[in-house]
Amino acid sequence: MVTGKGSAEGSASGKVILFGEHAVVYGSPAIAAGLDRGARAVVTRLPGGPSTLKLGDGSVVADASSSNDLGRAFAALLEVAPAIPPVRVEARCDLPPGGGLGSSAALAVSIARAAETLVRGDEARPEEDAAIEARVLARAAAWERIFHGNPSGIDATAAARGGIFRFTRAEGARPITPRQDLVLCVGSTGHPSSTRTTVELIASQHTKDPALVKRSIDAVTSIVGNAVLAIEAGDQRALGDLMNMNQLVLSGLFVSTSEIEELCALARSAGALGAKLTGGGGGGCVIALVPPSFRSDGTRDEEREAESAARILDAWRSAEGHYEGF
Ligand code: MEV
């Protein structure tokens, strides 16, 4: 949306990875879903450079000539051709940084969208929309490469499109139509994690013992294939089992932690059908699948589902670690 003379706004979603994180970096499929929470950016034209970036309440500020990661990522996003002229960016994100919920990609996509809107102004032609979205993803990928090294692109794709979809590096996103709504709780370990670190950890395992990592990737590929079928068939019990299996494989790749395992165990004991880490692991967040409830006429009983979700959130909050969730 163009907000007035020389300013434009953009927004983007956070995400959870339902299945297949890390394996997706090696070309396997993964499943992601957009979150209601996300990022919003306002971009304003400046008479001259350098472009500036203010995050949140203004406590984090960078400009496109800074040599820190944020400054370099910001510059990389703006420099994707055609380069964005000097701008002031103010962006906010209501996702925890390092939580595995796609805060970095959501910021990048919201800034790129606002910048593209500002540059094309009111001249937008609908036939250009696909090219503009492709450029938004290219700008977000340039930003993500600074923070994450070798991003698969799933986070930026989720930030840009929301919804639930299967993704591969080669084919991009293919929407999935769930037979039933999925209700998830997100629990936080309280420890931010670095996706770059866990992606590099698996890359070094891959260099040392490619066959071992390949076996894990193959296992995840079949878990993801079955998960697509379970989502489309509305078989949430199977979906929960598949989440638990995916978590086992991720633990075997050493990207789980004792807090992640505890959050998963607490959620399962409180009635979740399955639980696993989401995103890079090594800290960050877990997701837990809330069992669906139905009334006698077959309609969903949202009240009972909210009670089931509350049991999981209570189990997290009343544990020794006082984990937060939503
Ligand atoms: C991070 O949300 C997902 C990872 O698979 C990294 C990536 O795909 O870029 C860990």
Quick overview of this protein structure:
This protein is an alpha+beta fold and 326 residues long. The chain contains nine helices and eleven strands.
Overview of this protein structure:
By secondary structure, this protein is of the alpha+beta class. The chain folds into two domains: 2-175, 2-Layer Sandwich (Ribosomal Protein S5, domain 2); 184-318, Alpha-Beta Plaits (2-Layer Sandwich), CATH 3.30.70. Helices cover 43% and strands 22% of the residues. It is built from nine helices and eleven strands. The strands form two sheets. Strands 1, 2, 3, 4, 5, 6, 7 and 8 form an eight-stranded mixed sheet that branches. The protein has a three-stranded antiparallel sheet with strand order 9-11-10. Strand 10 and strand 11 form a beta hairpin. Helix 5 packs across helix 6 (210-233) and helix 6 (210-233) packs antiparallel against helix 7 (236-252). The longest helix has 24 residues, at 210-233. It is globular. (R)-mevalonate binds at residues 17, 21-22, 24-25, 100, 148, 151-152, 154-155, 195, 199, 279-280.
